[in-house]
């Protein structure tokens, strides 16, 4: 048997379902891989060896008993540590939740288990998903497998690095302002942010509730689609969950790859997402990708979305405002850390000491920005105005989608930068320039690898209208088939 | 800076009571950070006050560009995909076992969350 860790999820699933390889063998191969490279990569905060082998054994037993397995049964997965997992440590990358074992599973955790997917462990992330580099984790940075001195993106950087380092064929990320697409781009893998409401938020530790959305990572478009289909769909436990059919993302990925053509598809290049502030190597890779799309028969049109330039400002008001409210739950009473409870300090003092000790600097900054922006007197000028800008961005999308079936841009303005290189918060925020508009509009978007710049991966972002996630997958799969796979670097012990 | 009064609508006023719809200039200083930290229940250190005052001023200066957009007649968007309120049937559902929930608490007494004192003892 060739190296199981080099296979796609689709291939592993077919082998397991066909009885050609045992799920336990697959799980062990990936656990071994984690054992040999994760000291360098630091993708995982917790590896659940016993749980993974047990879940894999259950898949093998089910098959032996005649159960017909689903396409991802026995396929290993790395879970972002912002998703609650019953009995497994869940920290969201924060000291304030160190040692907490959730008493319940998130809906997506349940769906992943029910599909027979084998959860290997929990992955590192920027604290409470606030960041673009995974440097804001309380548990040390994750290293990019393409260059261990560089960041793997963020906030889902542990999940992106795990897949790029062949520690898992699949992983789960969450995307509030780009936290799936940007890490996918800088680690050379595929990541998709579903339409807001497409995947249940029940059991996601909330950052910005009107933006948060979980989605899949894989090394291929089809793998991401297969995982998307497992986690998507209506959930009555999430009041913003869409009560409707899941877009046919797997069929779209298969058709896109098989057709070898994008004839009749109108691809809109967003004028505002490029130019100044974008690395030349990123723009060159993007231009080459546009050429490939044109060769596939797509009609390339230029579209203008004039309000996208305000997306960064609107996002960095809306997300901190919602986080300042959401993170009020960390009150040193019901779960997590408690500091200063010496009998003399009041509840309020204990709360303040705990939050001071338990939160890192970026989380504190955002809580205070949000507190400021929601204050009486400033509310209209900041949060209220940001919500109006959100409307204008959604209208820009609506106009652009009259002329194009999908919109494209680079996924990030820059390739992976060095760990410790970006210290200024605003400079860090600009990593999200390309991904923020789709977050604010709630529309789906995929990042698919589109070549290298100086040996580092560049991502092509493909955006579609709400509920048309399948369009992202179709175009991404056609592009992927035409462009061919990246050659991943070797991470060695 | 003294504790800011809560207004009748429950909002808390920070800094000036300017209610104009344009973002104020000269945004934030050390004492305002101290006040925000108090509102947010963060016992920040002296060093953090200096650091955060500088950083928050820069960040708030950048995000204030939202007020450059002419949007007086534009409705706000709170959620991207329009939806109406969702109701469920009013039926009793099982909840998590009490001991499972208390197992994650920082301190437990008599099957309940134990909290630090909540009433001041001094005059």
Major sheet of chain B? 2 strands, antiparallel
Radius of gyration of chain A: 21 Å
Enumerate the strands of the largest sheet of chain B in spatial order, edge to edge or round the barrel.
1-2
Biggest interface goes to: A-B, 80 and 73 residues
The neighbouring-strand order within the major sheet of chain A is: 1-3-2-4-6-5-10-11-9-7-8
Uncertain runs of chain B are 1-25
Tally of DSSP helical segments of chain B = 3
Tell me the total number of β-strands of chain B: 2
Percent range for helical residues of chain B? 25-40%
Q: List the secondary-structure elements of chain A in sequence, H or E.
A: HHEHEHEHEHEEHHEHEHHHHEHHEEH
The helix content of chain A is 25-40%
Q: How much beta of chain A, percentage-wise?
A: 5-15%
Mean residue pLDDT of chain B: 80
Task: Identify the overall geometry of chain B.
Answer: flat
Give a quick rundown of the structure:
The complex is a heterodimer of chains A (493) and B (123). Chain A has 493 residues and is α/β, with parallel strands linked by helices.
Q: Please, could you describe this protein's structure?
A:
The complex is a heterodimer of chains A (493) and B (123). The model of chain A has no long low-confidence stretch (mean pLDDT 97). In chain A, helix 2 (23-41) runs antiparallel to helix 3 and helix 10 crosses helix 13. Chain A has 493 residues and is an alpha/beta fold. In chain A, 40% of the residues lie in helices and 13% in strands. Chain A has an 11-stranded mixed β-sheet with strand order 1-3-2-4-6-5-10-11-9-7-8. Chain A has 16 helices and 11 strands. Chain A has helices at 9-17, 23-41, 49-64, 107-114, 157-164, 181-187, 221-231, 249-259, 280-295, 311-326, 347-358, 361-373, 380-403, 425-429, 436-441, 469-483; strands at residues 44-47, 76-80, 118-123, 170-175, 190-193, 213-218, 266-270, 299-303, 406-410, 445-453, 456-463. Chain A is globular, with a radius of gyration of 21 Å. Chain B has 123 residues and is mostly helical. Chain B has a domain at 11-69. Chain B is 27% helix and 3% strand. Chain B has helices at residues 30-39, 46-63, 98-102; strands at 108-109, 112-113. A two-stranded antiparallel sheet of chain B has the order 1-2. In chain B, strand 1 and strand 2 form a beta hairpin. In chain B, helix 1 crosses helix 2 (46-63). Chain B is flat.
């Amino acid at each position: 048997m060739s190296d199981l860790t080099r296979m796609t999820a689709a291939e592993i699933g077919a082998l397991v379902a066909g009885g050609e390889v045992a799920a336990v063998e697959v799980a062990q191969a990936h656990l071994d891989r984690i054992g040999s490279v994760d000291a360098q990569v630091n993708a995982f905060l917790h590896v659940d060896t016993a749980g993974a082998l047990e879940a894999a054994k259950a898949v093998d037993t089910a098959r032996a008993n005649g159960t017909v397995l689903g396409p991802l049964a026995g396929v290993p997965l790395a879970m972002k540590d912002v998703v609650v997992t019953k009995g497994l440590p869940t920290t969201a990358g924060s000291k304030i939740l160190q040692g907490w074992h959730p008493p319940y599973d998130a809906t997506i955790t349940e769906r992943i288990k029910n599909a027979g997917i084998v959860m290997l462990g929990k992955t590192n992330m920027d604290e409470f998903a606030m960041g673009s580099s995974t440097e804001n984790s309380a548990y040390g940075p994750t290293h990019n497998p393409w260059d261990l001195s560089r960041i793997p993106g963020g906030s889902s950087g542990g999940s992106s690095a795990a897949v790029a380092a062949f520690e898992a064929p699949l992983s789960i990320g969450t995307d509030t302002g780009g936290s799936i697409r940007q890490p996918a781009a800088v680690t050379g893998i595929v990541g998709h942010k579903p339409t807001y409401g497409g995947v249940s938020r029940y059991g996601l530790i909330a950052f910005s509730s009107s933006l948060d959305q979980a989605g899949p990572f894989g090394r291929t478009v089809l793998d991401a689609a297969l995982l998307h289909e497992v986690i998507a769909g209506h959930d009555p436990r999430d009041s913003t969950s869409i009560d409707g059919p899941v877009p046919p993302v797997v069929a779209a990925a298969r058709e896109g790859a098989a057709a070898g053509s994008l004839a009749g598809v109108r691809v809109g290049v967003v004028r505002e997402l490029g130019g100044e502030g974008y690395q030349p190597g990123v723009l060159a890779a993007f231009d080459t990708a546009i050429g490939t799309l044109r060769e596939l028969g797509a009609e390339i049109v230029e579209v203008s979305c004039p309000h996208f330039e305000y997306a960064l400002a609107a996002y960095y008001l809306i997300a901190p405002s919602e986080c300042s409210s959401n993170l009020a739950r960390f009150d040193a009473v019901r779960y997590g850390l408690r500091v200063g409870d010496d009998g003399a300090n009041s509840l309020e003092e204990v709360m303040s000491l705990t939050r001071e000790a338990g939160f890192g600097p970026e989380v504190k900054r955002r809580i205070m920005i949000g507190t400021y922006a929601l204050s009486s007197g400033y509310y209209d000028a900041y949060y209220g105005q940001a919500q109006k800008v959100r409307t204008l961005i959604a209208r820009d999308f609506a106009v652009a989608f009259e002329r194009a079936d999908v919109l494209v841009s680079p996924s990030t303005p820059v390739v992976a930068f060095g760990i410790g290189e970006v210290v200024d918060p605003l400079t860090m925020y600009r990593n999200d320039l390309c991904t923020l508009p789709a977050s604010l509009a709630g529309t789906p978007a995929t990042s698919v690898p589109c070549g290298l710049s100086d040996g580092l991966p560049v991502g092509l972002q493909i955006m579609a209208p709400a509920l048309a996630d399948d369009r992202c997958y179709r175009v991404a799969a056609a592009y992927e088939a035409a462009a061919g796979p990246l050659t991943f670097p070797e991470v060695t012990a | 800076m003294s504790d800011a009064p809560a207004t009748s609508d429950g909002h808390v006023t920070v800094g000036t009571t300017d209610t104009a719809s344009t973002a104020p200039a000269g945004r934030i200083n050390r004492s305002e950070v101290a006040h925000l930290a108090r509102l947010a229940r963060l016992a920040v250190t002296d060093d953090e006050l200096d650091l955060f005052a500088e950083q928050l001023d820069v960040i708030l200066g950048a995000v204030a560009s939202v007020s450059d957009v002419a949007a007086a007649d534009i409705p706000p968007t709170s959620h991207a995909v329009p939806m109406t309120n969702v109701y469920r049937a009013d039926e009793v559902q099982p909840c998590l076992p009490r001991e499972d929930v208390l197992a994650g608490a920082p301190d437990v007494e008599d099957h309940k969350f134990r909290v630090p004192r909540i009433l001041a003892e001094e005059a």
